[in-house]
Amino acid sequence: MSQHKLFLLRHGEGAWNKENRFCSWVDQRLSEDGVKEAQECGRLLKAQGYRFDLVYTSILSRSVQTAWLVLEAMGQEWVPVVKSWRLNERHYGALIGLNRAEMAAIHGEEQVKVWRRSYDVTPPPIEESHPYYFEIYNDRRYNTCDVPKESLPRTESLKEVLDRLLPYWHNVIVPEIKSGRTVLISAHGNSCRALLKHLEGISDADIAGVTLPTGIPVLLELDADLKPVKPRELLGDQAKIQAAIKKVEDQGKATPAGK
Ligand SMILES: O=C(O)[C@@H](CO)OP(=O)(O)O
Ligand 1: which residue has its CA nearest to atom 5? Predict the structure, then answer.
């Protein structure tokens, strides 16, 4: 029997989604379209009568901004927003900033798919010589984490995302859901995929086929033990959602840059 509703949301489109670059821990803000997606998502949730008690975000601006826009559109700005690095996007290591289509042209589409969607393949780590290394690690938000800065990841597989996310899920989020609060997690494509894998028991192989579009709320109905009682529901116009999923998948195709 459904006891709890949990909502997962991948933030609205960011500037680097548009440029087709691996964004990861670089703190890009939402694009104009991303702002509209988040507002649209809030309007949809409001129209369907949902109410949140608590929102969790990563410490990347695009996920926080999305949560704010959703709550504003719902007229629920007062709802507490709690942030943790453990909900951050997957750390893409040395791939950060690179263009996916260019990478596909050089390394092949299959390799890019493995980097993007496999469960346990870890890209090469980010080194100090990387153009975004200091922008990331000198950012004072990373002084606020529950681990010393030196222990923060330099790259991650999806499995490693799940490893750092699960303690936060079990210790912080689960007790709130079990106490009856309706929770929205406004995070990222891969932190949401990792959590979905855990909740739905998706196999290591099958998770490669799961892609989440930006700005589309995913509704999970859970039993008292937080096991899903029915398939996840992506809320909104289903044709548009399928088109948005295809767009994300096609980002890994070797089309000429700029096309
Ligand atoms: O750029 C990233 O960090 C993610 C999306 O947020 O990319 P991908 O879809 O390739 O996993």
Answer: 189
* HEC profile of the chain: CCCEEEEEEECCCEHHHHCCECCCCCCCCECHHHHHHHHHHHHHHHHCCCCCCEEEECCCHHHHHHHHHHHHHHCCCCCCEEECHHHCCCCCHHHCCCEHHHHHHHHCHHHHHHHHHCCCCCCCCCCCCCCCHHHHHCCHHHHCCCCCHHHCCCCCCHHHHHHHHHHHHHHHHHHHHHCCCCEEEEECHHHHHHHHHHHHCCCCCHHHHCCCCCCCEEEEEECCCCCECCCCEECCCHHHHHHHHHHHHHCCCCCCCCC
- The reply to whether 258 falls in a domain is no
pLDDT at 257: 43
Tens digits of residue pLDDT in 38-70 = 999 999 999 999 999 999 999 999 999 999 999
Model pTM score: 0.96
In a domain, 259, yes or no: no
Domain count, the chain: 1
In a domain, 34, yes or no: yes
- Which atom of ligand 1 is nearest the CA belonging to 89? 3
Q: What is the ipTM of this complex?
A: 0.96
Pocket test for ligand 1, best of 13, 24, 111 (most atoms within 8 A of CB): 24
